[in-house]
């Protein structure tokens, strides 16, 4: 017993057993010291070296970018790079878009209507949905497409569909082969991963400005932008599908003497079919979201209607068009999801069709051919009947509801807005924008190094330096404040509902379908109801961002809590812990990596949505980008704002990913 009571020798070293605890306590203390030092220096140096820039002012970089834009415009048809490369790409895509539009949405030549009218489109949609899915999604698709006509938005909906299909076709032609290559080659996968990470980190808004510099505005640019945004899910998911095929199956094929191409076509792709189809689903959803936002660069369709309505604060029109976007998203999502399920069922049957399905498909094909012929030949089958009275009623009801909400709930909504704005957003924004730029930069670098390690610190330092170089430091800090506040609210919601779902399978079954549906909707749609509730303010953008980002955070946290070993929870229960103690002392600490990942994804989603909120008064970088599209003299500033958004996204992403890795370690 004497050896137990002996004190350790004073060698100046911390005992090995105590070292992890010391490190664990040290990091929060370092973070607290950084924040305290920041507050003290802020009190002493407030208002100095803030790098504020007025809305109409330009820096040398902005003027240089304007000159580049003017120079490219002047030499577009003489510069060999544009003449033989970029212009040719634009021409090919433009021809594709024009062809698809001529089929379903736009008049062609002397025809006053498209080649396939509404009756043929509805029939084709129902038939394809049934052929790749089932009769339930076919009915949903027919009802959804008929609803577009009843809303008075048939042509706008078909324009959106044409751009989406064009972009998805090109994205899959590029993405699936690259995904297969990345699935087969470890080296190529390592090369592609950083590019895919970067492309998926960038908010949708940011793709628009640089691509209009090269490809001008219009449908072709919208499709090219959408392809760049929508291809990464196809590449990543296809590579994952190929890599997920059991190695024993591949080895068995090898032992039978199959060639590399036979192995790919007869084994890997058939066994990956379901996952690849889910990748197609994600590509379609990304394309639809991007096509609606591409309305800012004059892309036709429903997005253009929403943008114009938001800019004029016409909630009724915005709601009607937003509802059409939601319906289209739901239809496309359900059809592709059902296709994935059918692909799995067909794989289990060995690829054989059910006996009755072949004759029915043939009969359905004949019926659809008749509908297409009628819609091509007769005006009554080409032009949707009626004048869209349902859309007028929907818009009127939305306007009436908005007026009622503003008259009866303005006290509550204004109180909520003022409480969050004055109690949290304004103080934090003041701390960021009124501190010297070098002080905020030093804090960001220090936080990156403490949370993510020295590499994250170096990344933060580079991003801070480039942010200063954009000339938009103050606007960047304003956007950072809104992003941080919205992310905090997202994590609060994520923790509450994620823990609830993780602990209760019943709650998970009830809530998860709603979260899945919420993730289907393009970000534009979230602005409309909150514009009705809160008006055109930055608070509207923050609330919309929270609702947009919360589903992904909730699902990640729920999965993290559910993965905590049941034996650990039972041990805590048998030790006398109550529910609150189990959650706070066991489940959340053991789900730290999920919490960090949820923070990462929440930040990226919020940043994307806060910037889109520039359309409804969010200001800062979002306003700079929108103003750059609408005012030629501010184009360079808008382009610099897009770069600033990328830098914020990269900095957040690298810090939170590094923190997640350190948490798992």
H/E order of the elements? HHHHHHHHHHHHHHHHHHHHHHHHHHHHH
The portion of residues forming beta strands comes to: under 5%
- The helix content is over 70%
Q: What is the makeup of the main sheet?
A: none
Descriptive overview:
The protein has 665 residues and is mainly α. The longest helix has 34 residues. The N terminus is likely disordered.
Question: Would you spell out the secondary-structure blueprint of this structure?
Answer:
Blueprint: H1 2-5, H2 19-45, H3 60-75, H4 80-104, H5 118-132, H6 135-150, H7 154-184, H8 186-201, H9 208-215, H10 219-244, H11 247-255, H12 260-293, H13 302-311, H14 315-348, H15 357-377, H16 379-382, H17 389-408, H18 410-434, H19 437-452, H20 454-470, H21 473-503, H22 505-520, H23 523-534, H24 538-562, H25 566-574, H26 579-590, H27 592-612, H28 620-630, H29 635-664
Annotation keywords:
29 helices, mainly alpha, 665 residues, disordered N terminus, single chain
Short description:
With 665 residues, this protein is mainly alpha-helical.
């Amino acid at each position: 017993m004497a050896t137990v009571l002996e004190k350790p020798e004073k060698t100046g070293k911390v005992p090995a057993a105590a070292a992890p605890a010391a490190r664990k306590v040290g990091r929060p203390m370092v973070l607290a010291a950084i924040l305290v030092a920041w507050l003290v220096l802020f009190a002493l140096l407030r208002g100095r070296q803030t790098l504020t820039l007025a809305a109409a002012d330009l820096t040398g970089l902005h003027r240089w970018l304007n000159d580049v834009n003017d120079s490219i415009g002047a030499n577009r048809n003489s510069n060999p790079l544009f003449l033989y490369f970029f212009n040719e790409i634009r021409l090919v895509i433009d021809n594709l878009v024009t062809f698809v539009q001529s089929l379903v949405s736009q008049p062609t030549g002397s025809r006053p209507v498209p080649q396939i009218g509404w009756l043929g489109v509805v029939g084709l949609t129902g038939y394809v949905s049934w052929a790749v899915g089932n009769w339930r999604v076919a009915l949903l698709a027919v009802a959804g497409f008929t609803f577009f006509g009843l809303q008075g938005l048939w042509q706008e909906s078909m324009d959106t569909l044409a751009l989406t299909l064009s972009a998805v076709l090109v994205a899959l032609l590029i993405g699936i082969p690259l995904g297969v290559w990345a699935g087969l080659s470890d080296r190529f996968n390592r090369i592609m991963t950083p590019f895919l990470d970067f492309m998926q980190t960038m908010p949708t808004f940011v793709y628009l400005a640089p691509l209009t510099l090269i490809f001008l505005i219009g449908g072709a640019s919208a499709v090219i932008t959408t392809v760049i945004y929508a291809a990464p899910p196809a590449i990543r998911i296809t590579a994952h599908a190929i890599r997920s095929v059991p190695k024993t199956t591949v080895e068995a094929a090898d032992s039978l003497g199959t060639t590399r191409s036979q192995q790919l076509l007869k084994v890997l792709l058939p066994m990956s079919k379901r996952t690849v189809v889910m990748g197609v689903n994600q590509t379609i959803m990304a394309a639809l979201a991007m096509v609606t936002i591409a309305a800012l660069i004059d892309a036709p369709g429903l997005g253009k209607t929403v943008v114009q309505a938001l800019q004029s604060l016409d909630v009724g029109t915005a709601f009607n068009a937003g509802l059409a976007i939601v319906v289209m998203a739901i239809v496309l999502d359900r059809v592709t999801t059902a296709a994935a399920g059918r692909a799995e069922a067909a794989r289990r049957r060995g690829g054989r069709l059910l006996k009755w399905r072949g004759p029915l498909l043939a009969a359905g094909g004949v019926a659809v051919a008749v509908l297409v012929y009628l819609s091509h030949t007769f005006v009554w089958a080409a032009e949707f009947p009626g004048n869209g009275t349902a859309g007028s009623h929907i818009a009127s009801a939305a306007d009436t509801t908005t007026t009622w909400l503003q008259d009866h709930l303005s006290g509550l909504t204004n109180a909520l807005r003022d409480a969050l704005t004055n109690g949290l957003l304004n103080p934090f924004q003041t701390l960021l924008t009124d501190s010297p730029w070098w002080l905020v930069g030093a804090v960001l670098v220090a936080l990156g190094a403490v949370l993510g390690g020295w590499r994250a610190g170096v990344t933060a330092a580079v991003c801070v330096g480039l942010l200063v170089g954009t000339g938009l430091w103050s606007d960047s800090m304003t956007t950072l404040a809104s992003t941080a506040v919205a992310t905090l609210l997202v994590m609060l919601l994520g923790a509450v509902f994620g823990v609830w779902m993780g602990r209760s399978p019943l709650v998970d079954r009830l809530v998860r379908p709603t979260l899945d549906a919420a993730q289907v909707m393009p970000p534009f749609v979230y602005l409309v109801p909150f514009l009705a509730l809160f008006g055109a303010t930055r608070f509207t953008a923050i609330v919309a961002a929270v609702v947009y980002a919360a589903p992904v955070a909730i699902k990640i946290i729920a999965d993290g809590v559910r993965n905590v070993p049941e034996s650990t929870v039972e041990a805590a229960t048998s030790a006398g812990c109550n529910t609150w103690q189990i959650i706070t002392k066991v489940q959340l600490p053991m789900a730290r990596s999920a919490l960090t990942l949820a923070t990462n994804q929440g930040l990226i989603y919020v940043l994307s949505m806060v910037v889109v909120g520039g359309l409804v008064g969010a200001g800062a970088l979002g306003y700079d980008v929108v103003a750059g599209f609408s005012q030629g003299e501010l184009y360079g500033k808008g382009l610099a704002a897009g770069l600033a958004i990328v830098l914020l996204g990269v900095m957040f992403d690298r810090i939170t990913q590094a923190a997640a890795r350190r948490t798992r370690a």
